[in-house]
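Summary of Year 1 activities. Much of the first year was spent building the evaluation harness for sequence design. The harness presents a backbone, in tokenized form, and records the residue chosen at every position. We chose the following record to illustrate the format because it has been used consistently in internal testing since the harness was completed.
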């Protein structure tokens, strides 16, 4: 159904922008953390190239969203991937493992951005698709706005980490929290048993803090212990 120049257009546009603002924040955090270790010029390239490629991924996701929703354990797998991404991104920030230099490369940053956006974008795509109500122009507008928010927010977050180192840990918590929520939202796992709604945020907090604590311990102290042993 196409939306004409009527009283429905402005509310739809505002709804799409609001959905993008709410659901694209964690994507911006991932982009900021992935691009932050790079030099300034490569950082901008990673954000632009990674964000542009992620936009194409969202178009593909929109086309196959119904099929993806039917895949068993999709959210659980995606959530586990996000926990791993949070763990790996802190390795970049610690910068203590000489064998992890590839993770600081432009190619590695873009790959991380694409993988995380693929995992985290399904809710955003579905929300925009519902708000556009089948209007292709509104749908494309929503996708472009979402990626503009992600790239602009990712650039700001990367610059902020330069001055406030603790934001890297806060960002890792956000990413891990999103992963923990996705695992708990998985339909296949829900059939095996689900937690009370009041317990879900507690589990997400605990999982996020454990991932960040383990990442800090492994990335900061394990290389130092190897070097002392040598």
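For this record, the design step produced the sequence shown next.
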């Amino acid at each position: 159904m196409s939306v004409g120049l009527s009283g429905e257009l402005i509310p739809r546009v505002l709804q799409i922008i609001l959905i993008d603002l709410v659901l694209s924040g964690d994507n911006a955090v991932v982009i900021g953390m992935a691009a932050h270790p790079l030099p300034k010029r490569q950082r901008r390239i990673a954000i632009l190239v990674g964000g542009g490629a992620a936009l194409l991924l969202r178009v593909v996701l929109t086309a196959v969203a119904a099929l993806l929703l039917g895949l068993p354990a999709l959210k659980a797998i995606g959530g586990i991937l996000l926990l791993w991404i949070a763990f790996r991104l802190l390795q970049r920030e610690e910068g203590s493992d000489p064998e992890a230099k590839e993770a600081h490369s432009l190619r590695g940053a873009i790959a991380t951005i694409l993988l995380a956006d693929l995992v985290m974008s399904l809710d955003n795509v579905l929300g925009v698709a519902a708000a556009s109500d089948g209007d292709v122009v509104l749908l494309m507008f929503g996708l472009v706005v979402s990626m503009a928010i992600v790239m602009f927010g990712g650039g700001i977050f990367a610059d902020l980490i330069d001055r406030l180192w603790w934001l890297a840990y806060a960002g890792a918590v956000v990413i891990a929290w999103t992963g923990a929520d996705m695992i708990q939202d998985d339909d296949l796992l829900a059939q095996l048993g689900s937690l009370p709604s009041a317990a879900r945020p507690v589990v997400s907090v605990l999982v996020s803090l454990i991932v960040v604590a383990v990442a800090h311990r492994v990335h900061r102290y394990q290389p130092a212990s190897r070097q002392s042993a040598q």
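The chain has one domain: 9-229. Quantitative recovery figures across the full test set are reported in Table 2.
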